[in-house]
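Quick question, first post here. What does this chain look like in 3D?
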Amino acid sequence: MERKKKSAIEIPDIRTKRRRALIGLTIALLLLASAVAVCLWLHHVMFRSNPRLVFRELHVSSSGYWNQRDEELIRTLGLKRNSNIFDLDLGKLRRQLRSVPSIADARVQRILPDTLMVEVSERMPRAIINYPRSRWVIDEEAVVMERTRSMANSIVLPTITGVAHTRLKGGDRLPELQPALDVINAVVRSYPDMEILMVSVSNSEQLDTYIRYRNGKTYRVLMPAKNRGVEYMLNALQSAIIQAYQKGEERTTVNLSFDGLAVIN
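> Answer (accepted):
Ran it through. Tokens below.
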């Protein structure tokens, strides 16, 4: 009899505890929701609706064309002054910058209350496409850029001729020019005594290259287009030019098509 009374007393106690726990959880959730709402309201008041936190200035730094071209970059990105600076999506802006043909990468950050700071890494032009006054240049990864909106205005570039494309646009990739670019890149990096003037790619199997050596002579150099041993061929070329100069050789055509052997004819 006492056991039944005890069980009858315990059941209401359990139900009461559960009810209290549910009420406590409900209160906690309401407090949490209230806190979130207050935070969102404060965020809106302090950041989104703050008249001081509007975009007014952009400062761009780069080692090339885009350095300090703040207004041009604002137009390129389609930015509007006096819009809230926190409404600007930095990730989207970075993607927009990387879509500019002459820009390889970029970093964007807010400087409160009203400024965007942009750091740009530019593509390095390596050659002019088709003729010396062409509108288009190309970088070492075969990306086409507009000459006047790149670093090309400040450096002397060789010309790659025989390019079949007639309707080029910024951002195009021309992988078929990579063999010629590999030779140009190797000379720029490792052969200061050589200067490439022109590379013809009209023959897909052979590069017809004109190189000025430090002795003042210009050499016509024929080399296979599909040879990965660029450094080996350039070493053979340099040795052949030095030996020819020492011997007083007047011929200036060098053929590297015979397994990397330099034949002067």
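The first helix runs from residue 2 to 48.
The mean pLDDT is 89.
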